[in-house]
Amino acid sequence: MNQHKHTELILALDCPNRTEALKLLKTMQGSLKWVKIGLQMFTAYGIPLAKEIKAMGFNIFLDLKLHDIPNTVAKAIDSLSEVSIDLLTIHAIGGSEMCQFAAKARDASNPNLKLLAVTVLTSMNQAQLEQLNIHTSVESQVQTLAKLSTQSGIDGIVASPLELAMLRSELDPSTLIVTPGIRPRGADLNEQKRVMTPEEASKLGANFIVVGRPILNSPNPSETVQSILKSLK
Ligand code: C5P
User: Fold this and answer.
1) Domain assignment present for 130
2) Nearest ligand 1 atom, CA 158
3) Which of 52, 54, 76, 201 has its Cβ near the most Cβ atoms within 10 Å?
4) Which range of residues forms the domain containing residue 79?
5) Does residue 2 form part of some domain?
6) What percentage of the chain reaches a pLDDT higher than 70?
7) What count of other Cβ atoms lies within 10 Å of the Cβ of residue 97?
8) What is the pairing mode between strands 208-211 and 176-179?
């Protein structure tokens, strides 16, 4: 059983540039709480943009999917402490030592930060795992990596809608689960193949849902945010 009280909405800030991103966020101050900054925006605008968004009152999910030797990942987490970001992704495939170093760096430099592990990228399938000499099912690899990372001090998992129920039943109830691939009923799927509505993901125990294009491409993004928030109540 999951113990989460309420599912939070995270906007994936996949915008063409900084100006557009900030203009959009201004319309959502006071309603939306969480913003995900991905590799594209962070590579272009870095810590200054993250600081600016934090100063506007948003909580920040930095989706950098860190994967390196343990010491380098720990140092990167130290370097991020000046922004006091709230959620950060690392790759569980980096192994238990990397996860432990990351958790130690979190405790030392930003104890409010929650670390999330990415297990198997949803762009990978069984055939691609075989090419890597990984001869197990995607589901079993997801389970293995989710357990390994959470037993190594990581706070949560990024899980596709399809993995949500399985992980919720397998992991400690305190584990955070963040789920992208969310589409409000009737919304364009874009290229996402296996989607869930916000309500479904919430019922299955997602602590956070990540939504990008259904909000970004909507004629009225802040109204769409309001309607998703309402559906999560
Ligand atoms: O626009 P859309 O709602 O599909 O965006 C989802 C966001 O979540 C994007 O930033 C995407 O990179 C991210 N994501 C995903 N699927 C995963 C992991 C992350 O869609 N498995």
Assistant:
1) yes
2) 18
3) 201
4) 8-231
5) no
6) 98
7) 13
8) parallel
How many folded domains does the chain comprise?
Answer: 1
Rounded to an integer, the average pLDDT of 80-91 is 95
**Å from CA of 40 to ligand 1 middle:** 12
For residue 149 the two structure tokens come to 């990372």
Is any atom of ligand 1 closer than 6 Å to the C-beta of 211? yes
Whether residue 122 has its Cβ less than 6 Å from ligand 1? yes
- Contact between residue 121 and residue 93 where contact means Cβ atoms under 8 Å apart: no
Q: Is residue 223 included in any domain, yes or no?
A: yes
Whichever domain contains 143, its CATH number is: 3.20.20.70
In eight-state DSSP terms, residue 7 is: P
Q: For 119-165, what is each residue's pLDDT tens digit?
A: 999 888 999 999 999 999 999 999 999 999 999 999 999 999 999 99
Cβ neighbours, 10 Å, residue 133: 6
